[in-house]
Design a protein that fits this description.
Elements: E1 4-10, H1 40-46, E2 57-61, H2 65-75, E3 80-84, H3 90-102, E4 109-114, E5 118-120, H4 124-129, H5 131-135, E6 139-144, E7 155-161, E8 169-175, H6 180-189, E9 192-202, H7 203-213, H8 215-226, E10 229-231, E11 234-236, H9 239-242, H10 250-255, E12 261-266, E13 269-271, H11 276-282, E14 291-293, E15 296-299, E16 305-308, E17 313-316, E18 321-326, E19 329-334, H12 341-350, E20 362-364, E21 375-380, E22 384-391, E23 396-399, E24 405-411, E25 413-417, E26 422-426, E27 430-432, E28 439-443, E29 449-456, H13 466-471
Parallel strand pairs: 1-2, 1-4, 2-3, 3-11, 6-12, 14-16, 15-17, 16-18, 20-23
Antiparallel strand pairs: 4-9, 5-13, 6-9, 7-8, 7-9, 8-12, 10-11, 18-19, 21-22, 22-29, 23-28, 24-27, 24-29, 25-26, 25-28
Helix pairs in contact: 1-2, 3-7, 3-8, 7-8
Length: 472
Protein backbone atom coordinates (compact mmCIF):
# COMPACT_ATOMS: atom_id res chain seq x y z
CA UNK A 1 0.00 0.00 0.00
CA UNK A 2 1.19 3.50 -0.85
CA UNK A 3 2.31 5.38 2.26
CA UNK A 4 0.89 8.82 3.08
CA UNK A 5 3.20 11.69 3.97
CA UNK A 6 1.68 14.02 6.59
CA UNK A 7 2.33 17.64 5.60
CA UNK A 8 2.03 19.76 8.75
CA UNK A 9 1.55 23.48 8.09
CA UNK A 10 2.70 25.54 11.08
CA UNK A 11 1.73 29.05 10.01
CA UNK A 12 -0.69 31.64 11.34
CA UNK A 13 -0.74 33.89 14.38
CA UNK A 14 -3.88 32.71 16.17
CA UNK A 15 -4.71 36.21 17.42
CA UNK A 16 -8.07 35.15 18.85
CA UNK A 17 -6.18 33.12 21.47
CA UNK A 18 -4.17 36.10 22.67
CA UNK A 19 -2.45 36.57 25.12
CA UNK A 20 -1.36 32.92 24.99
CA UNK A 21 -0.86 32.89 21.22
CA UNK A 22 1.43 35.53 19.71
CA UNK A 23 3.42 36.00 16.54
CA UNK A 24 6.64 34.52 17.94
CA UNK A 25 4.88 31.75 19.90
CA UNK A 26 1.59 31.10 18.09
CA UNK A 27 -1.29 28.83 19.03
CA UNK A 28 0.04 25.64 17.45
CA UNK A 29 3.00 25.51 19.83
CA UNK A 30 0.92 26.05 22.98
CA UNK A 31 -0.29 23.16 25.12
CA UNK A 32 -3.94 22.27 24.66
CA UNK A 33 -4.75 21.76 28.33
CA UNK A 34 -2.82 21.58 31.57
CA UNK A 35 0.95 21.45 32.03
CA UNK A 36 1.09 17.73 31.13
CA UNK A 37 -0.83 18.00 27.86
CA UNK A 38 0.62 18.01 24.35
CA UNK A 39 0.72 21.12 22.22
CA UNK A 40 -1.58 21.47 19.21
CA UNK A 41 1.38 20.75 16.91
CA UNK A 42 2.42 17.66 18.87
CA UNK A 43 -1.14 16.35 18.77
CA UNK A 44 -1.16 16.74 14.98
CA UNK A 45 2.07 14.76 14.78
CA UNK A 46 0.75 12.04 17.09
CA UNK A 47 -2.41 11.51 15.02
CA UNK A 48 -0.30 10.39 12.07
CA UNK A 49 2.05 7.75 13.48
CA UNK A 50 0.32 4.62 12.14
CA UNK A 51 2.21 2.29 9.72
CA UNK A 52 0.40 3.80 6.73
CA UNK A 53 2.10 7.16 7.33
CA UNK A 54 5.60 8.09 6.18
CA UNK A 55 7.93 10.54 7.94
CA UNK A 56 6.15 13.90 8.21
CA UNK A 57 7.13 17.10 6.43
CA UNK A 58 6.77 20.25 8.52
CA UNK A 59 6.60 23.72 6.95
CA UNK A 60 7.11 26.50 9.46
CA UNK A 61 8.45 30.02 9.83
CA UNK A 62 12.18 30.49 10.27
CA UNK A 63 11.72 31.89 13.77
CA UNK A 64 9.87 28.73 14.87
CA UNK A 65 12.49 26.22 13.73
CA UNK A 66 13.88 25.69 17.23
CA UNK A 67 10.44 25.21 18.75
CA UNK A 68 9.51 22.66 16.08
CA UNK A 69 12.73 20.74 16.69
CA UNK A 70 12.25 20.72 20.45
CA UNK A 71 8.63 19.58 20.30
CA UNK A 72 9.47 16.84 17.78
CA UNK A 73 12.32 15.74 20.03
CA UNK A 74 9.94 15.46 22.99
CA UNK A 75 7.86 13.01 20.93
CA UNK A 76 10.97 11.22 19.62
CA UNK A 77 9.81 11.87 16.06
CA UNK A 78 12.02 12.76 13.11
CA UNK A 79 10.69 14.98 10.32
CA UNK A 80 11.76 16.99 7.32
CA UNK A 81 11.63 20.68 8.23
CA UNK A 82 11.14 23.39 5.61
CA UNK A 83 11.57 26.97 6.86
CA UNK A 84 9.76 29.86 5.20
CA UNK A 85 11.53 33.25 5.29
CA UNK A 86 8.10 34.89 5.64
CA UNK A 87 4.48 33.74 5.68
CA UNK A 88 2.80 33.57 2.26
CA UNK A 89 -0.35 31.63 3.29
CA UNK A 90 -0.90 27.91 2.75
CA UNK A 91 -0.59 27.82 -1.05
CA UNK A 92 3.15 28.56 -1.37
CA UNK A 93 3.86 26.49 1.76
CA UNK A 94 2.20 23.40 0.28
CA UNK A 95 3.77 23.98 -3.11
CA UNK A 96 7.26 24.31 -1.59
CA UNK A 97 6.86 20.92 0.10
CA UNK A 98 5.67 19.42 -3.18
CA UNK A 99 8.70 20.84 -5.03
CA UNK A 100 11.05 19.35 -2.42
CA UNK A 101 9.50 15.88 -2.64
CA UNK A 102 9.13 15.88 -6.44
CA UNK A 103 12.88 15.43 -6.78
CA UNK A 104 12.70 12.20 -4.77
CA UNK A 105 9.31 10.78 -5.70
CA UNK A 106 6.79 12.64 -7.90
CA UNK A 107 4.13 10.25 -6.62
CA UNK A 108 4.63 11.30 -3.01
CA UNK A 109 1.16 11.28 -1.48
CA UNK A 110 0.48 14.17 0.90
CA UNK A 111 -2.23 14.63 3.47
CA UNK A 112 -2.19 18.29 4.47
CA UNK A 113 -2.82 18.70 8.18
CA UNK A 114 -3.34 22.01 10.01
CA UNK A 115 -1.12 22.14 13.09
CA UNK A 116 -3.61 23.96 15.31
CA UNK A 117 -6.85 21.94 15.15
CA UNK A 118 -8.24 19.47 17.69
CA UNK A 119 -9.48 16.20 16.18
CA UNK A 120 -10.88 13.19 18.02
CA UNK A 121 -11.56 10.01 16.06
CA UNK A 122 -10.01 7.66 13.53
CA UNK A 123 -8.24 9.29 10.59
CA UNK A 124 -6.25 6.32 9.35
CA UNK A 125 -9.21 4.43 7.86
CA UNK A 126 -10.80 7.35 5.94
CA UNK A 127 -7.40 8.49 4.66
CA UNK A 128 -6.52 4.99 3.50
CA UNK A 129 -9.86 4.75 1.66
CA UNK A 130 -8.92 7.82 -0.42
CA UNK A 131 -5.47 6.68 -1.53
CA UNK A 132 -6.63 5.31 -4.89
CA UNK A 133 -8.38 8.56 -5.78
CA UNK A 134 -5.32 10.66 -4.86
CA UNK A 135 -2.96 8.35 -6.77
CA UNK A 136 -5.26 8.70 -9.81
CA UNK A 137 -4.77 12.49 -9.74
CA UNK A 138 -7.71 13.66 -7.66
CA UNK A 139 -7.35 16.40 -5.02
CA UNK A 140 -9.42 15.12 -2.12
CA UNK A 141 -10.68 17.66 0.40
CA UNK A 142 -12.23 16.37 3.62
CA UNK A 143 -15.51 17.73 4.95
CA UNK A 144 -16.99 17.57 8.45
CA UNK A 145 -20.72 17.14 8.90
CA UNK A 146 -21.80 20.46 10.48
CA UNK A 147 -23.13 20.43 14.05
CA UNK A 148 -24.59 23.94 13.82
CA UNK A 149 -24.66 26.90 11.38
CA UNK A 150 -21.24 28.52 11.82
CA UNK A 151 -20.42 31.67 9.86
CA UNK A 152 -16.71 31.45 10.63
CA UNK A 153 -16.14 28.27 8.59
CA UNK A 154 -16.06 27.61 4.87
CA UNK A 155 -18.45 25.00 3.42
CA UNK A 156 -18.14 22.33 0.72
CA UNK A 157 -21.33 21.24 -1.04
CA UNK A 158 -21.62 17.60 -2.17
CA UNK A 159 -21.90 17.23 -5.94
CA UNK A 160 -22.90 13.56 -6.04
CA UNK A 161 -21.24 10.19 -6.48
CA UNK A 162 -17.85 9.80 -8.14
CA UNK A 163 -17.64 6.32 -9.59
CA UNK A 164 -14.68 4.11 -8.88
CA UNK A 165 -13.25 5.80 -5.80
CA UNK A 166 -15.27 4.46 -2.88
CA UNK A 167 -16.20 7.23 -0.42
CA UNK A 168 -14.90 10.05 -2.63
CA UNK A 169 -17.60 12.31 -4.09
CA UNK A 170 -17.80 15.21 -6.50
CA UNK A 171 -17.76 18.83 -5.35
CA UNK A 172 -20.66 21.03 -6.39
CA UNK A 173 -19.22 24.28 -5.03
CA UNK A 174 -17.34 25.96 -2.21
CA UNK A 175 -18.99 28.58 0.01
CA UNK A 176 -16.60 30.87 1.88
CA UNK A 177 -17.71 31.77 5.43
CA UNK A 178 -21.39 32.51 4.72
CA UNK A 179 -23.65 34.57 7.03
CA UNK A 180 -25.55 32.52 9.61
CA UNK A 181 -28.77 32.68 7.57
CA UNK A 182 -27.04 31.26 4.50
CA UNK A 183 -25.18 28.66 6.58
CA UNK A 184 -28.49 27.55 8.08
CA UNK A 185 -30.02 27.17 4.62
CA UNK A 186 -27.03 25.13 3.42
CA UNK A 187 -27.33 22.72 6.35
CA UNK A 188 -31.10 22.38 6.01
CA UNK A 189 -30.76 21.61 2.29
CA UNK A 190 -28.37 18.75 3.10
CA UNK A 191 -25.06 17.78 1.53
CA UNK A 192 -23.06 20.69 2.94
CA UNK A 193 -19.92 20.08 4.99
CA UNK A 194 -17.57 22.25 7.00
CA UNK A 195 -14.25 22.66 5.20
CA UNK A 196 -11.79 21.00 7.58
CA UNK A 197 -8.56 22.32 6.05
CA UNK A 198 -7.45 18.70 5.51
CA UNK A 199 -6.73 17.50 1.97
CA UNK A 200 -4.93 14.71 0.11
CA UNK A 201 -3.14 14.71 -3.24
CA UNK A 202 0.11 13.69 -4.90
CA UNK A 203 3.05 16.06 -5.16
CA UNK A 204 2.86 15.86 -8.96
CA UNK A 205 -0.85 16.74 -9.01
CA UNK A 206 -0.60 19.88 -6.89
CA UNK A 207 2.53 20.93 -8.79
CA UNK A 208 0.80 20.59 -12.18
CA UNK A 209 -2.39 22.35 -11.06
CA UNK A 210 -0.50 25.24 -9.50
CA UNK A 211 1.49 25.80 -12.69
CA UNK A 212 -1.80 25.71 -14.60
CA UNK A 213 -3.62 28.34 -12.53
CA UNK A 214 -0.81 30.51 -11.13
CA UNK A 215 2.39 29.83 -13.08
CA UNK A 216 4.09 32.98 -11.77
CA UNK A 217 3.75 31.99 -8.13
CA UNK A 218 4.65 28.40 -8.95
CA UNK A 219 7.84 29.54 -10.68
CA UNK A 220 8.83 31.75 -7.74
CA UNK A 221 8.29 28.92 -5.26
CA UNK A 222 10.24 26.49 -7.44
CA UNK A 223 13.12 28.97 -7.60
CA UNK A 224 13.04 29.44 -3.82
CA UNK A 225 13.46 25.67 -3.42
CA UNK A 226 16.27 25.52 -5.98
CA UNK A 227 18.13 28.33 -4.17
CA UNK A 228 17.33 27.04 -0.68
CA UNK A 229 20.10 26.36 1.82
CA UNK A 230 20.38 23.45 4.21
CA UNK A 231 21.30 24.37 7.75
CA UNK A 232 21.29 22.06 10.77
CA UNK A 233 19.24 19.55 8.78
CA UNK A 234 16.47 22.02 7.80
CA UNK A 235 15.82 23.48 4.37
CA UNK A 236 15.67 27.30 4.39
CA UNK A 237 13.79 28.65 1.36
CA UNK A 238 15.35 31.59 -0.49
CA UNK A 239 13.64 34.77 0.65
CA UNK A 240 13.93 36.82 -2.57
CA UNK A 241 11.97 34.45 -4.79
CA UNK A 242 9.62 33.11 -2.09
CA UNK A 243 8.62 36.66 -1.14
CA UNK A 244 7.33 37.21 -4.70
CA UNK A 245 4.86 34.33 -4.44
CA UNK A 246 1.22 35.35 -4.24
CA UNK A 247 0.00 34.92 -0.65
CA UNK A 248 -3.07 32.81 -1.34
CA UNK A 249 -4.54 29.78 0.45
CA UNK A 250 -4.43 26.53 -1.49
CA UNK A 251 -8.24 26.53 -1.64
CA UNK A 252 -8.60 29.73 -3.66
CA UNK A 253 -5.39 29.26 -5.65
CA UNK A 254 -6.21 25.73 -6.86
CA UNK A 255 -9.06 23.82 -5.18
CA UNK A 256 -11.86 26.17 -6.24
CA UNK A 257 -10.60 26.29 -9.85
CA UNK A 258 -9.55 22.75 -10.72
CA UNK A 259 -11.71 19.99 -12.19
CA UNK A 260 -9.71 17.44 -10.19
CA UNK A 261 -11.32 18.37 -6.87
CA UNK A 262 -13.21 15.77 -4.85
CA UNK A 263 -14.92 15.53 -1.46
CA UNK A 264 -14.58 12.89 1.25
CA UNK A 265 -16.82 13.14 4.34
CA UNK A 266 -14.89 12.72 7.60
CA UNK A 267 -16.72 11.37 10.65
CA UNK A 268 -14.67 12.78 13.53
CA UNK A 269 -15.00 15.39 16.28
CA UNK A 270 -13.26 18.43 14.83
CA UNK A 271 -12.66 21.95 16.08
CA UNK A 272 -10.34 24.62 14.72
CA UNK A 273 -10.32 26.21 18.21
CA UNK A 274 -10.65 29.73 16.88
CA UNK A 275 -11.59 31.39 20.19
CA UNK A 276 -11.28 31.02 23.95
CA UNK A 277 -14.90 29.89 24.02
CA UNK A 278 -13.92 27.05 21.68
CA UNK A 279 -10.93 26.30 23.90
CA UNK A 280 -13.29 26.02 26.85
CA UNK A 281 -15.54 23.77 24.76
CA UNK A 282 -12.83 21.18 24.05
CA UNK A 283 -11.69 21.05 27.71
CA UNK A 284 -13.07 18.85 30.48
CA UNK A 285 -14.91 20.97 33.08
CA UNK A 286 -15.31 20.12 36.75
CA UNK A 287 -18.67 19.62 38.52
CA UNK A 288 -19.29 23.39 38.44
CA UNK A 289 -18.57 23.66 34.74
CA UNK A 290 -15.20 25.31 35.39
CA UNK A 291 -11.98 24.65 33.48
CA UNK A 292 -9.08 25.51 35.78
CA UNK A 293 -5.53 25.21 34.46
CA UNK A 294 -2.44 26.08 36.47
CA UNK A 295 -2.33 27.44 40.03
CA UNK A 296 -5.98 28.51 40.38
CA UNK A 297 -8.40 28.90 43.29
CA UNK A 298 -12.05 29.34 42.31
CA UNK A 299 -14.85 30.06 44.82
CA UNK A 300 -18.48 30.31 43.76
CA UNK A 301 -17.50 30.26 40.08
CA UNK A 302 -19.50 28.52 37.36
CA UNK A 303 -18.90 27.79 33.67
CA UNK A 304 -15.67 29.75 33.81
CA UNK A 305 -12.22 29.09 32.36
CA UNK A 306 -9.10 30.26 34.21
CA UNK A 307 -5.61 29.60 32.89
CA UNK A 308 -2.66 30.64 35.07
CA UNK A 309 0.74 30.24 33.46
CA UNK A 310 3.10 31.83 35.99
CA UNK A 311 1.42 32.67 39.31
CA UNK A 312 -1.56 32.04 41.57
CA UNK A 313 -4.86 33.33 40.18
CA UNK A 314 -7.97 33.47 42.40
CA UNK A 315 -11.52 34.13 41.21
CA UNK A 316 -14.69 34.60 43.26
CA UNK A 317 -18.30 34.47 42.08
CA UNK A 318 -17.59 34.54 38.35
CA UNK A 319 -19.91 33.01 35.78
CA UNK A 320 -19.38 32.49 32.03
CA UNK A 321 -16.05 34.32 32.04
CA UNK A 322 -12.60 33.62 30.55
CA UNK A 323 -9.48 34.60 32.54
CA UNK A 324 -6.10 34.06 30.86
CA UNK A 325 -3.04 35.16 32.84
CA UNK A 326 0.47 35.29 31.36
CA UNK A 327 3.59 36.96 32.81
CA UNK A 328 3.08 40.19 30.87
CA UNK A 329 -0.63 40.32 29.93
CA UNK A 330 -4.00 39.46 31.45
CA UNK A 331 -7.23 38.83 29.54
CA UNK A 332 -10.66 38.87 31.19
CA UNK A 333 -13.64 38.43 28.85
CA UNK A 334 -17.24 37.28 28.82
CA UNK A 335 -17.53 33.81 27.33
CA UNK A 336 -19.86 34.99 24.56
CA UNK A 337 -17.53 37.80 23.48
CA UNK A 338 -14.25 35.97 23.09
CA UNK A 339 -14.38 36.35 19.29
CA UNK A 340 -13.70 40.06 19.91
CA UNK A 341 -10.23 39.37 21.34
CA UNK A 342 -8.85 39.89 17.84
CA UNK A 343 -10.01 43.53 18.10
CA UNK A 344 -7.85 43.92 21.22
CA UNK A 345 -4.85 42.61 19.30
CA UNK A 346 -5.59 45.06 16.47
CA UNK A 347 -5.55 47.92 18.98
CA UNK A 348 -2.25 46.72 20.42
CA UNK A 349 -0.76 46.56 16.92
CA UNK A 350 -1.77 50.16 16.27
CA UNK A 351 0.18 51.13 19.37
CA UNK A 352 3.13 48.96 18.30
CA UNK A 353 2.95 47.01 21.55
CA UNK A 354 5.39 44.12 21.73
CA UNK A 355 2.81 42.04 23.58
CA UNK A 356 1.25 41.28 20.19
CA UNK A 357 4.42 39.60 18.94
CA UNK A 358 6.18 37.87 21.81
CA UNK A 359 5.86 36.88 25.44
CA UNK A 360 7.81 38.57 28.19
CA UNK A 361 11.36 38.52 27.05
CA UNK A 362 14.89 39.13 28.25
CA UNK A 363 15.70 42.75 27.51
CA UNK A 364 19.26 44.01 27.47
CA UNK A 365 20.06 47.70 27.73
CA UNK A 366 23.40 49.14 26.64
CA UNK A 367 24.84 49.87 30.07
CA UNK A 368 25.33 48.83 32.74
CA UNK A 369 25.24 45.17 31.75
CA UNK A 370 25.73 43.95 35.30
CA UNK A 371 22.32 45.31 36.29
CA UNK A 372 20.47 43.11 33.81
CA UNK A 373 18.62 40.21 35.41
CA UNK A 374 19.10 37.86 32.46
CA UNK A 375 22.78 38.65 31.84
CA UNK A 376 25.54 37.37 34.11
CA UNK A 377 28.51 39.73 34.42
CA UNK A 378 31.83 37.98 33.77
CA UNK A 379 34.36 40.82 33.67
CA UNK A 380 34.55 44.58 33.45
CA UNK A 381 36.99 47.48 33.36
CA UNK A 382 36.83 51.17 32.61
CA UNK A 383 36.73 50.36 28.91
CA UNK A 384 34.52 47.28 28.56
CA UNK A 385 32.06 44.87 30.15
CA UNK A 386 31.68 41.16 29.34
CA UNK A 387 28.57 39.15 30.18
CA UNK A 388 26.79 35.93 29.27
CA UNK A 389 23.12 35.08 28.71
CA UNK A 390 20.85 32.23 27.63
CA UNK A 391 17.83 32.42 25.35
CA UNK A 392 15.30 29.62 25.85
CA UNK A 393 14.00 27.60 22.88
CA UNK A 394 11.73 29.70 20.68
CA UNK A 395 12.21 32.83 22.83
CA UNK A 396 13.60 36.23 21.97
CA UNK A 397 16.04 38.72 23.49
CA UNK A 398 16.06 42.42 22.63
CA UNK A 399 19.19 44.56 22.34
CA UNK A 400 18.40 48.24 22.65
CA UNK A 401 19.76 50.74 20.14
CA UNK A 402 23.41 51.53 20.65
CA UNK A 403 26.73 51.58 18.92
CA UNK A 404 29.15 49.64 21.13
CA UNK A 405 27.71 46.22 21.82
CA UNK A 406 28.19 42.85 20.15
CA UNK A 407 26.89 39.37 20.89
CA UNK A 408 28.96 36.27 20.13
CA UNK A 409 26.98 33.05 19.65
CA UNK A 410 28.72 30.48 21.86
CA UNK A 411 26.17 27.71 21.36
CA UNK A 412 23.11 27.38 19.18
CA UNK A 413 21.55 28.98 16.12
CA UNK A 414 19.79 32.37 16.10
CA UNK A 415 17.87 34.74 13.88
CA UNK A 416 18.64 38.43 14.36
CA UNK A 417 16.47 41.25 13.02
CA UNK A 418 17.24 44.96 13.04
CA UNK A 419 15.36 48.03 11.80
CA UNK A 420 16.18 47.29 8.15
CA UNK A 421 18.04 43.98 8.07
CA UNK A 422 17.98 40.38 9.22
CA UNK A 423 20.48 37.53 9.41
CA UNK A 424 20.97 34.05 10.87
CA UNK A 425 24.07 33.07 12.80
CA UNK A 426 25.40 29.90 14.39
CA UNK A 427 28.22 29.12 16.80
CA UNK A 428 31.08 31.57 16.31
CA UNK A 429 28.87 34.13 14.57
CA UNK A 430 28.42 37.70 15.80
CA UNK A 431 25.51 40.10 15.99
CA UNK A 432 26.12 43.82 16.44
CA UNK A 433 23.75 46.41 17.79
CA UNK A 434 22.32 48.95 15.39
CA UNK A 435 22.36 52.69 16.14
CA UNK A 436 19.11 53.08 14.18
CA UNK A 437 16.98 51.00 16.57
CA UNK A 438 16.63 47.87 18.72
CA UNK A 439 17.33 44.41 17.37
CA UNK A 440 15.80 41.09 18.36
CA UNK A 441 17.66 37.79 18.64
CA UNK A 442 15.48 34.65 18.45
CA UNK A 443 16.68 31.17 19.37
CA UNK A 444 16.14 28.78 16.44
CA UNK A 445 17.81 25.80 18.15
CA UNK A 446 16.18 22.92 19.98
CA UNK A 447 18.10 23.78 23.15
CA UNK A 448 18.96 27.03 24.97
CA UNK A 449 21.26 29.33 23.02
CA UNK A 450 24.27 30.78 24.85
CA UNK A 451 25.49 34.29 24.06
CA UNK A 452 28.58 36.20 25.14
CA UNK A 453 28.14 39.98 25.24
CA UNK A 454 30.87 42.59 24.96
CA UNK A 455 29.98 46.20 25.74
CA UNK A 456 32.49 48.93 25.02
CA UNK A 457 32.49 52.01 27.20
CA UNK A 458 32.57 54.53 24.36
CA UNK A 459 32.03 54.77 20.66
CA UNK A 460 35.82 55.01 20.23
CA UNK A 461 35.87 51.24 20.64
CA UNK A 462 33.15 50.68 18.06
CA UNK A 463 34.08 48.39 15.14
CA UNK A 464 34.24 50.27 11.85
CA UNK A 465 31.42 49.83 9.35
CA UNK A 466 29.19 48.55 12.13
CA UNK A 467 26.03 48.64 10.10
CA UNK A 468 27.66 46.88 7.17
CA UNK A 469 28.80 44.07 9.48
CA UNK A 470 25.34 43.80 11.04
CA UNK A 471 23.78 43.44 7.65
CA UNK A 472 26.36 40.89 6.59
Amino acid sequence: MKKITPLIICGGNGTRLWPLSRKHSPKQFQRIGDADSLTFFQSAIQRHRAPVFAEPVVVTGRIHEGTVRKQLQELQVSARIICEPMGRNTGPAVLAAAEVMLAEDPDTLFVVVPADHVIEGDLTLPFTACIDAAVAGQIVTFGIEPRFPESGFGYIVDGGEMEGFGPVRRVDRFVEKPPVVEATALIEAGGAYWASGISMFSAATIHDEYFKFDPTTAAHVAQSVQEAKRQDGSLHLASGSFGQADAQPTESAVFERTDRIALAPLDVDWDDVGSWKAMYGISKPDANGNVLQGDVIALGAQNTMVRADSRLVSVVGLSDVIVIDTPDALLVARMDQTQDVKAIVDELKKSHRRETERHQEAKVAMVPMIDQEKVSALAESDNYQVGAAEIAVGRTMTLEAGDARQALIVRGHVHAQGPAWQKTSSEGGRVYTDPDGPITITNLSDEPTELLFVTLASADFQPKSLKRVANG
